């Protein structure tokens, strides 16, 4: 056990801090629409142009080729500098990209990785279907092989920012006769493909901005070379993607939330007085969250330590489940601290927006209940069953 | 940076785990009349294996390892519900060492001397009212607060009165600290912050209790059958067990972090020690409560070991200041780095 970073690590931290302090976007991030896309891409491009994108990605595809420890340091400094959360880039940076790095062909890596880092392409996810949510492997969107193409017909749902995206990581059924986990393929899908139709779905935190889309594919044609891994082996490819989403991709959030709790303590003291906060129930909740956020951050250090030793990806569900619930408690308390003002929802108030938004944290990347199943069966070894 | 034990550290964990599994199975607490510190008979053996001076510098008669190794060992003490008198002896040796009393230090490191633990009764008794844990046969009693850590002779306490302990295997007494009595040895916080170490180690101990309760519940859920299946196959039970695992993971990570910042003499040492105690004691109490529920009516009996975990988790919470006090304290620290 060791909390010390190497001299090179510390040097990296200094340089990252300096660059971030000088270059972080100060303008508030728009909550939706093309302005949000432009904002996120511009911030990503700024990082890439300065050589800071893809800390742990291979050098030959535009990354920095450094390990997860440096990635952790970068995210810590990123959060410390209050750098914007360019959430539109999340799928590319944390699912699509890492999956192609792990399982893609050389040609796929050459074509798709750099545009993610350089802020040219936004990726979205096409996993869930109207009748395949927690039971993801029951998905039915069909892909028929026709020569050197796949012909896709069906529907995907809960695709965040699909209407603002260029590319999609798409799970399709290529063998309906095989057992349900054995007939799925993981496909790189271009959102400009003819035969794709989108229906917008607004969410409760920002009713004026489309967040989700439902995707309808009507004989949409994709080159067969866009299948990542083997045809019909998409389930194992998808599982590596979810491992990233539940594990190291969450690092940045933990640090960000730890700072948020500190802001909340300050805000509560300003609003109600330091003495009151220490005796009121707000004080008890803030104190508990301060301790829980310390633990959440320690969990990110543990996640990096485990990843370096190749420990079972099911362990990532422990952190995901814990952090999802703590984040909700943080946002709920922030909402409570502003008191009656929480009933006003002006466009520029992040505390109300993010409170409502926090209901997603125990649903996205597998519901809390699915995480508990994974922990029960794959971490604790309890028998399978529903 | 690495939060996982190194292979050397894992070897220490394996050694103490094997020792306690053989010498101190939790079933020992079920023996009729096992009230009083029967674990004291383990002390000379633990001392001989070097566990009492693990984190003391070699020039102070210790092994010269770090707070991280000590944290890992206290986690195992909690897992096996070792008497909390272990805090008196190990922290007591530290008090003696840093106060410069080599003779007393060596007596404590040998495991021959017994040290009880005094804990403030707080609002229930006033500033001079204490509970003494496992102190009936102890020559010395550890008293450790925010300002200093000290070893008092038992004779420094007055009005000693034996009371029934909620954790029935422990000997509990009420007592008052006499007027103008001096401790045998004392160490100020500025010399060595033993109070922060006590909180950190209590976090590790409580982590172990919570993990013990988790494992007991999981084991039972795998073998107990209802409706023709092991109850652990039902989500209603499986999810309770998963929540126990989540709490233990959070407590483990924070206990590890707290030990490491202490080794680095970081200004955030106290913050992380308090955070560890808060998170770990909650994990211990909630896991023990869930363990009762998973066991059903059996869990409510004195025949199952479950109640030992529940009762010990509350002892861990109250020692060195309970949840309310620790929550008040954690808000007093500046923003950690």
From TrEMBL, chain A:
Keyword Flavoprotein: yes
Domain Acyl-CoA oxidase/dehydrogenase middle: 124-202
Acyl-CoA dehydrogenase/oxidase N-terminal domain sequence ranges: 6-120
Keyword terms of this UniProt record: FAD, Flavoprotein, Oxidoreductase
Keyword Flavoprotein found: yes
Gene Ontology molecular function, alphabetical: flavin adenine dinucleotide binding; oxidoreductase activity, acting on the CH-CH group of donors
Gene3D superfamilies for this protein: Acyl-CoA dehydrogenase/oxidase, N-terminal domain, Butyryl-CoA Dehydrogenase, subunit A, domain 2, Butyryl-CoA Dehydrogenase, subunit A, domain 3
Family matches, as InterPro entries: Acyl-CoA_Oxase/DH_mid-dom, Acyl-CoA_Oxase/DH_mid-dom_sf, AcylCo_DH-like_C, AcylCo_DH/oxidase_C, AcylCoA_DH/ox_N, AcylCoA_DH/ox_N_sf, AcylCoA_DH/oxidase_NM_dom_sf, Mycobact_Acyl-CoA_DH
Cofactor(s), names only, from the UniProt record: FAD
Pfam families with a match to the protein in the record: Acyl-CoA_dh_1, Acyl-CoA_dh_M, Acyl-CoA_dh_N
Gene Ontology cellular component terms for the protein in this record: plasma membrane
Domain (Acyl-CoA dehydrogenase/oxidase C-terminal): residue spans on this chain: 232-380
Family: Belongs to the acyl-CoA dehydrogenase family.
Protein name from the UniProt record: Acyl-CoA dehydrogenase
Provenance organism: Hyphomonas johnsonii MHS-2
UniProtKB/TrEMBL annotation, chain B:
GO MF entry, a single one: flavin adenine dinucleotide binding
Listed Pfam families: Acyl-CoA_dh_1, Acyl-CoA_dh_N
Highest taxon, organism lineage: Bacteria
Cited PANTHER family: ACYL-COA DEHYDROGENASE, ACYL-COA DEHYDROGENASE FADE28
Domain Acyl-CoA dehydrogenase/oxidase C-terminal per the UniProt entry, residue ranges: 201-331
Keywords in alphabetical order: FAD, Flavoprotein, Oxidoreductase
Entry protein name: Acyl-CoA dehydrogenase
Organism: Hyphomonas johnsonii MHS-2
Cofactor annotation: FAD
Residues annotated as domain Acyl-CoA dehydrogenase/oxidase N-terminal: 7-94
Family: Belongs to the acyl-CoA dehydrogenase family.
């Amino acid at each position: 056990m060791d909390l010390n970073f190497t001299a090179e690590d510390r040097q990296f931290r200094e340089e990252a801090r300096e660059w971030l302090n000088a270059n972080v976007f100060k303008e508030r991030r728009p909550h939706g629409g093309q302005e949000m896309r432009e904002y996120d891409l511009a911030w990503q491009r700024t990082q890439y142009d300065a050589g800071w994108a893809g800390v742990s990605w291979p050098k030959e595809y535009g990354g920095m080729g450094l390990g997860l420890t440096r990635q952790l340091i970068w995210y810590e400094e990123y959060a410390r500098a209050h750098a914007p959360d360019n959430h539109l880039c999340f799928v590319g940076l944390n699912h699509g990209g890492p999956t192609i790095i792990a399982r893609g062909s050389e040609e796929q890596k050459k074509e798709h990785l750099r545009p993610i880092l350089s802020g040219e392409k936004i990726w979205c996810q096409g996993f869930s279907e109207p009748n395949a949510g927690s039971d993801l492997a029951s998905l039915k969107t069909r892909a028929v092989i026709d020569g050197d193409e796949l012909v896709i017909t069906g529907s995907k749902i809960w695709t965040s920012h699909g209407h603002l995206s260029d590319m999609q990581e798409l799970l399709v059924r290529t063998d309906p006769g095989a057992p349900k986990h054995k007939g799925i393929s993981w496909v790189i899908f271009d959102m400009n493909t003819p035969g794709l139709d989108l229906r917008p779905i607004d969410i409760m935190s920002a009713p004026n901005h489309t967040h989700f889309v439902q995707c309808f594919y009507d004989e949409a044609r994709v080159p067969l070379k866009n299948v990542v891994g083997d045809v019909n082996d998409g389930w194992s490819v998808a599982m590596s993607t979810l491992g990233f989403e539940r594990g190291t991709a969450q690092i940045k959030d933990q640090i960000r939330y730890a700072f948020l709790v500190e802001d909340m303590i300050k805000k509560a003291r300003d609003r109600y007085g330091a003495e009151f906060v220490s005796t009121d129930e707000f004080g008890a909740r803030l104190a508990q969250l301060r301790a829980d956020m310390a633990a959440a951050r320690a969990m990110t250090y543990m996640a990096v330590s485990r990843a370096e030793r190749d420990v079972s990806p099911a362990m990532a569900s422990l952190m995901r489940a814990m952090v999802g619930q703590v984040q909700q408690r943080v946002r709920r308390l922030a909402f409570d601290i502003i008191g009656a003002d929480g009933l006003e929802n002006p466009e520029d108030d992040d505390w109300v927006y993010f409170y409502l938004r926090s209901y997603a944290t125990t649903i996205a990347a597998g519901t809390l209940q699915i995480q508990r199943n994974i922990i029960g069966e794959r971490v604790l070894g309890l028998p399978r069953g529903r | 940076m690495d939060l996982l034990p190194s292979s050397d550290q894992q070897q220490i964990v394996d050694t103490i785990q094997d020792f306690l599994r053989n010498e101190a199975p939790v079933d020992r607490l079920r023996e009729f009349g096992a009230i009083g510190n029967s674990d004291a008979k383990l002390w000379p053996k633990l001392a001989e294996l070097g566990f009492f001076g693990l984190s003391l510098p070699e020039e102070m008669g210790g092994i010269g390892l770090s707070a991280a190794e000590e944290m890992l060992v206290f986690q195992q003490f909690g897992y096996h519900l070792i008497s909390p008198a272990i805090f008196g002896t190990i922290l007591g040796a530290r008090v003696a060492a840093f106060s410069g009393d080599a003779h007393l230090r060596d007596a404590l490191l040998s495991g021959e001397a017994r040290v009880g633990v005094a804990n403030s009764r707080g609002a229930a008794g006033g500033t001079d009212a204490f509970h003494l844990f496992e102190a009936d046969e102890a020559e010395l009693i550890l008293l450790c607060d925010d300002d200093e850590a000290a070893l008092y002779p038992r004779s420094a306490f007055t009005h000693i009165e034996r009371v029934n302990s909620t954790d029935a295997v422990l000997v509990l007494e009420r007592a008052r600290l006499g007027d103008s009595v001096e401790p045998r040895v004392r160490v100020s916080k500025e010399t060595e912050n033993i109070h922060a170490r006590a909180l950190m180690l209590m976090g590790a101990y409580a982590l172990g209790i919570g993990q013990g309760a988790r494992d007991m519940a999981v084991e039972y859920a795998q073998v107990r059958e209802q409706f023709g299946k092991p109850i652990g196959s039902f989500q209603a039970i499986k999810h309770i067990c998963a929540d126990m695992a989540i709490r233990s993971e959070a407590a483990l990570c924070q206990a590890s972090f707290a030990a490491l910042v202490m080794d680095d003499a970081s200004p955030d040492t106290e913050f992380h020690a308090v955070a560890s105690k808060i998170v770990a004691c909650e994990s211990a109490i909630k896991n023990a409560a869930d363990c009762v529920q998973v066991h059903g009516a059996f869990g409510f009996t004195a025949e199952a070991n479950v109640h030992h975990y529940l009762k010990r988790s509350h002892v861990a919470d109250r020692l060195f200041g309970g949840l309310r006090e620790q929550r008040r304290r954690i808000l007093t620290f500046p923003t950690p780095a």
